[in-house]
Amino acid sequence: MKRKSTQVALVVAGFLSISMVCSISALAGAPQHRDQAPGYYRLRVGDLEVTSLCDGGAQFDTNWLTGTKAVMADIANTLQKQPHFLDVTDWGFLVNTGKRLILVDAGTGEWWGGGAFGRVEANLHSAGYAPEQVDLVLITHLHSDHIGGLSTRDGKSVFPNADVYVAKAENDFWLSPEIAAKAPKEAQEFFQSAQAISAPYIKAGKWHTFSGSDEIAEGIKTVPLPGHTPGHTGYEFSSKGQKILFWGDIIHALRAQLKHPEISVVFDIDRAAAVATRENLMPVLAGEGTLIAGPHLPFPGLGRVQRDGNAYSWAPVAFTDQWIPR
What we know:
This protein is an alpha+beta fold. The radius of gyration is 24 Å and the shape is globular. Helix content is 32%, strand content 26%.
């Protein structure tokens, strides 16, 4: 009886060994999938459906940050310990009001990032929409990583049925041949791309400007946030007592600038004004618990600012596969 049990045990062990070898072989033979899940995320704000559309990701260069020697040394030290400390993402945001489909910033398209970005349109399709359905595009500012997705390199509109709105101060700065001619060589690319990207919409009569805190449509308030660029603007959407602020480039390197709000970036036209705008805005947003949509924030680009001693921390919205309002 004992010999028979031993034989059975050996047979079972043999089958297990063969099974494990087959499993390992099957796993080894399966190709790896290098693509990621579609880069979009939906959130309800009142009656609004807000969809984050990922454009791509990269790391923010420390040379693009400007601060005191002590602050920059702290960032360099943190980056050594935490390699993802300066990771950034580029987002566009789609708002379905039930009556209109509105895009806030359009990502880079073919105009920035050397292929690392430019996925807003593809993720728009993945989210169940088509560019032709977009009625309105609201632009926070005319840097190419926010407007590149509007037009192709050969001068065609990506959103042919959309009216585009941008602050007059922003328009008058970047689309001015006189200002462009006097700009530093390293800034010329921004002027050239802004003029080329806007051209098909201007030609079609679909390029519009606004001033101050004009209300573009019901439930949409413009919020002047100058400094990063002359007409840098946020958009506050409200519905059923809830609101969300699309704040543009108030922050680029989230963890660094929440810890040190006084840090500016080389892309700020007026660095002092950009810092002042951020330092004035942050305590208000933290105090109100305002929902924020930021083009350079980590997935899904949505969350809230919280007080953290003398600095701030970020509370991203929690991922869920169910659309449950909170």
